[in-house]
Amino acid sequence: MTIGVLGGGQLGRMMAIAGVALGQRFVFLDPGAESSAGHVGNLRVGAYDDEERLSELARKSDVVTYEFENVPVGSARFLNELVRVYPPPRALEVSQDRLDEKRFFASLGIPTAGFAPVATNDDLEKAVATLGLPAVLKTRRFGYDGKGQWVLRTREDVENAWEALGAASLVLEAFVPFEREMSILAVRSKTGETRFYPLVENEHRGGILRVSYPKSDAWTPELQARAEAHAGRVLAELDYVGVLAIELFITGGELVANEMAPRVHNSGHWTIEGAETSQFENHVRAILGMPLGSTRMVGYSAMINAIGKLPPRDEVLAIEGAHLHAYAKHEAPGRKVGHVTVRAESKRELCDKIEALLPIVDPEGSPRPCR
Ligand SMILES: Nc1ncnc2c1ncn2[C@@H]1O[C@H](COP(=O)(O)OP(=O)(O)O)[C@@H](O)[C@H]1O
Ligand SMILES: [Mg+2]
Q1: Measured from the CB, is residue 204 less than 6 Å from ligand 1?
Q2: Which domains are seen in the chain, by residue range?
Q3: Would the CB of 247 count as within 6 Å of ligand 1?
Q4: What would the pLDDT profile of 129-142 be if each residue is shown by its tens digit?
Q5: Helix, strand, coil shares of the chain as percentages rounded to 5?
Q6: What is the tens place of the pLDDT at every residue in 141-166?
Q7: What is the pTM of this model?
Q8: Atom in ligand 1 nearest the alpha carbon of residue 98
């Protein structure tokens, strides 16, 4: 089979690395000629809304998926007339707009932070009066890695934010004083078969994911069951096919949904070495209707992102159990250029390895999984 992918970044690259092992071929559409997935599949360069390019992608593909959630929904719908597109375009639509996404969670009984739409200065004043400060003001669309959002702590922040943002479509969210951030990754096949990975704890700095580790000390079977129930409702409502990630806050023992991604997710990269079947392989299996693979953890693992620059390769590889993933992207501040997953047989050993890796991969990182 040939799998067509909208987007040619590292997520597509890792999807192809897994799918090629299963005998599949990949064709990517991305506006960038240097795209990282071009090394592992056929890269077509073009705009996401170029109907000629989209038709060509459909002709070459048995099924189409996406690895970037800001591709136009219209393009996914256009393709869906020609070839099956998974996850369903409706999932893309919901997750592209933070306001629709929150309303969608609420409609399924999934708790979220308090929120209010903001289109005018008056809306903002009313929303602040209702939700209080601190609060987080976000653009409804196109935000990622903490871009397009502002924490408002004081009256002054509120006024400055309005001056800076004005006309954009916004949503104000109550600030969640979370103890931890976690995510649940789920996968549902064309056949309806469903599996969940263990909850992953995530550490962000500067709005960017830095470290992920499955089943941290804050993990409980109750949290896992609740997260699975929430994700299960989303899967069912959307008749979902593929991998889905939901980012969650843990606050006062409760799970609060932050946002979802209708695709493979950075907080699932640990699964390449740390789970029986990686999120990438399970995504490919799901969209082709193959039996899904076990999501069970293999030993203990953690993933550390390489942001801005790659760590010294041989120093990473010299650490037993450390696996380097380089995305073949140009280094630039704040850019995800690779990651390291480290695997160990015990928690103790994992912590020693994380401590050895942090200074070379993420010098400002804290060995949080080991506190
Ligand atoms: N309502 C909130 N309360 C507290 N922290 C928040 C809130 N919304 C976002 N954050 C923090 O900012 C990070 C990025 O926000 P998120 O909504 O996930 O946007 P992005 O699309 O950039 O990932 C979150 O992982 C969390 O650390
Ligand atoms: Mg996020």
Answers
A1: yes
A2: 2-85 (3.40.50.20), 114-174 (3.30.1490.20), 180-370 (3.30.470.20)
A3: yes
A4: 999 999 999 999 98
A5: 35, 30, 35
A6: 988 888 888 999 999 999 988 888 76
A7: 0.97
A8: 17
